[in-house]
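User: Quick one: structure for sequence A, then sequence B.

Assistant: Sequence A:
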Amino acid sequence: MPLMLFLIPKHKKKNSLTNYGDANILNIEDEISGKESFGKLVSAFRQVFLFFPGAFLLLFASMGLSWKFVGSIYFGSPEFPSFPSAFYLQQIVFLILAASLVIGGIGDLLKFKHLVLPASIISVGFTLGCLSGLSQTLADFIVYNGYSFFFLPLALIVPFIAKNWIDGVKEN
């Protein structure tokens, strides 16, 4: 559904069930449609200002981390820092903040099972980073030429598929 559909006003149909002369018999429909349009507006703002930036940050941070990590192991590059360094602490804090943006954008922060949403984006970024870290040809294509932006729609679609799957699973 396009994001701007909620701004188009719905035309009221006058029929015998809701109107009798000039009097409205059922006014409940107008209140519900107002609440639904406000909910759609809030949902659109959450997606635009929380989910999209969070997904962007998670994809490229996880892709860069895995690319650098796999490249340092595969090619033996000593430039990757050792584990207890400030680099890892900064990346972990960055990933936690971006994951909370994603969960706040399309999920519910109080549901533990919605941690699958940022994990799905991280898995896409990790897969792309590993593939480009293992092959110089893929690294040239994905990382150096800037074609990694073509994988952003994949990172935007996968969390919605994961959310539909997780919300469909019944809890015991």
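Sequence B:
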Amino acid sequence: MPYFDDVVLTLTPEAPGTPGDFSCDALGALLEPDVTEETRKYLCGPKSLVSTPEWKLTLDYDQNWDASTGLSAWLQAHHGELATALIESSTLAQSATVTVRVKPGPFGGTAGEIAEGTVELSVDGQPTFAPYTPVAARETEDETEVEDEAVA
């Protein structure tokens, strides 16, 4: 089984938005579904029904309040906004994209320890899962698209 390593966490606020890479603040990023299941007893026999998943994105991180690069500061600055979260794992060869509602995380902690935080962000809709594409391959694809547009 592969480890959840070599992960890139990018958050982009709604347009106009500049993507921020918070991989070096984050200790963990967990995209988790909440699904309810109910067994109905019909006259013809029991049937199990499941709901559409409601997702949340839980971020565990070291607090970083640097206004230009810190995840803590970014969450505070974009409170209440919608943002796109992209989680890419080269070791899992997979990526997940979700739209989240941003809310701030905690401030402070225990004396003498690293100030950590956890925030649960509600997901609007369903995630999109796709194979992981290395950055170099994406740049090549982008250049090809630009060349194709120039020819057209």
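The radius of gyration is 19 Å. Residues 144 and 150 are 10 Å apart (CA to CA).

User: Thanks, that's what I needed.
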